[in-house]
Amino acid sequence: MTAPDLTQTSGPGRWFTPRHIVALVLGLIIALVVAGALWWVFSSMGTTKITATFKRSVGIYEGSDVRILGVAVGKVDSVTPQGDTVKVTMTVDRGITLPEDVRAVQVIPSVVADRYIQLTPAYSGGPKASRDITLDVNQTMVPVEVDELYRSVKELSDALGPDGANKQDGTGRQGAVSELVATSAANLEGNGEKLGEAIENLSKATTTLSDSRGNLFDTVKNLNTFVGALRENDAQVRQFNTQMASFNKFLAGERDQLASALNKLSFALGDVAEFLDDNREQIGETVKDLQPTTQALLDEKNNLKEVLTVLPITISNLINAYDAESGTLSMRLTIPDLQDLIGAQCRLLDLGQLLPGNPQATQFSNTLRPLISQCEALGKQITDGVLEPLLPVLPFGIMSNNKLQKAPVPGTVPGNPDPEIGTPSSRTPAPPAARAPASSSTTKSTTPRPRGGN
Fold first, then answer.
1. Distance linking the first and last C-alpha atoms of the chain
2. Which tens digit of pLDDT belongs to each residue from 68-121?
3. Residue 176's closest CA among 189, 190, 191, 163?
4. Residue 179 half-sphere exposure, CB side, CA atoms within 13 Å?
5. DSSP string, 118-168
6. Which of 12-26, 227-241, 363-377, 397-411 has the lowest mean pLDDT?
7. Which residue among 196, 240, 386, 414 is least crowded, i.e. fewest CB within 10 A of its CB?
8. Averaged over 389-398, what is the pLDDT?
9. Residue 376 DSSP one-character state
10. Is residue 73 a contact partner of residue 93, using CB atoms and an 8 Å limit?
11. Start and end of every Mce/MlaD domain (predicted)?
12. What angle (nearest 5°) sits at the alpha carbon of residue 384, between those of residues 353 and 350?
């Protein structure tokens, strides 16, 4: 049997030549390299790279988990010592969003298990971290090692032991720690129940403070505002304290008189109490009789308020209207209803407006509503056609607030002085020799005279 000729250039065997085999192998290698590169590119896209610096890194190795809230989200890429610190690089999977203030913490799930790195806090909204994060020593935390814990316990036991605080002084007395324990046991003996109640009450008080922390903080804030106000008014506060000190000193100097006054006041209060007791019924009847008066004042509260508001202005106007030189009041009585006498009489028929809240008056006004409307229209026609032209010549015109007096009133218009008062030049005192004796006809009357039909 002869071996096949692999060098043949025709037939099926022509594809298995050494040249074709080498090309096929090279193609497979290139395809694997390209696939690996593509896989690496796509797997690294969207991931987050974190470079964290820890004070130490015990139990953290390449490949250790990176977790958020206990869920694995990445791996440790490398652990590199750098002097007194350790640099740890990590990669967080795609689709994981981290907050801008992210921190890295080494967590010990148990004493012998491998540690992992916890990223905290979990993202819940707000600014996001970049895809390349660098955390310094202040942004990372490491747990307390068991050796350090044992060392601290040993140091504490040595400090409290027979060579430390519990050392005897050579007189046979117990050490300070032993005496403390013995004294505490003696004081607490039989008080266990009370101690438990005290602890329970303290727990309740703490819970109350915790539940009312908002009000507590508001109180502290208000107290801070109050203290700030005192600081800003330091001079006034010092002055107030000085005045209070002077007042207290005055009371101390007058304590005898004050004691005597209080003693007499006690007798007076006793007499008042006796008077009230003897006249209890009369006082009750008096108070009961005052009820209608107080009710009337309450019903007229708005009117009283208006009177008290307008009264000072009225008094001021009255003072300003008084002419001391002539002894008269320079004022004008204004009666607006005189402009429309018939309309005023028509409005008197509208009892609903005069007695608001009275159902009978309201019903009466509703019944006479057509008549009131006709009366007002008729009154307007009469006023406009008949009374309006007469108002300037009637004495009502000067009091109507609408028609002003046209003719000047003596003594009230400049250039038309009152003959009895005279001009300022005529009131100039004459020389004693030429002054005529006063008579009843030239003496100025101090009685106010009506002016212009007022």
1. 161
2. 998 999 999 999 999 899 999 999 988 888 999 999 999 988 766 678 999 999
3. 163
4. 10
5. EEESPP-SSSB--SEEEE-GGGEE-PPPHHHHHHHHHHHHHHHSTTTTT--
6. 397-411
7. 414
8. 54
9. H
10. yes
11. 47-121
12. 15
Q: Which residues of 225-262 are buried (b: 16+ CB within 10 A; e: fewer)?
A: eeeeeeeeeeeeeeeeeeeeeeeeeeeeeeeeeeeeee
Token code pair at residue 369: 């509503």
Q: What angle do CA 432, 434, 435 make, to 5 degrees?
A: 65
The token duo for 249 is: 């000193």
**C-beta separation of 357 from 423 below 8 A:** no
Strands 132-135 and 48-54: parallel
Q: Which of 42, 38, 64 is nearest to 52 (CA)?
A: 64
pLDDT in tens, 413-451: 444 444 544 444 444 444 444 444 433 333 344 444 444
The 10s digit of each residue's pLDDT in 172-184 is: 677 788 888 888 8
The H or E element spanning position 373 is: helix 369-382
3-state secondary structure of 65: strand
Tokens linked to 385: 């056609």
Under DSSP, is residue 368 helix (H, G, I), strand (E, B) or coil? Answer: coil
Residue 338 is predicted with a pLDDT of 62
Q: Which of 303, 353, 338, 326 is nearest to 418 (CA)?
A: 326
Contacts of 323 (CB under 8 A, 6+ apart): 329, 330
Taking Cα atoms as reference points, which of 115, 112, 110, 113 lies closest to residue 67? 115
State pLDDT tens for residues 122-152.
Answer: 988 888 888 889 999 999 999 887 788 888 8
Cα–Cα dist 415/283, whole Å? 66
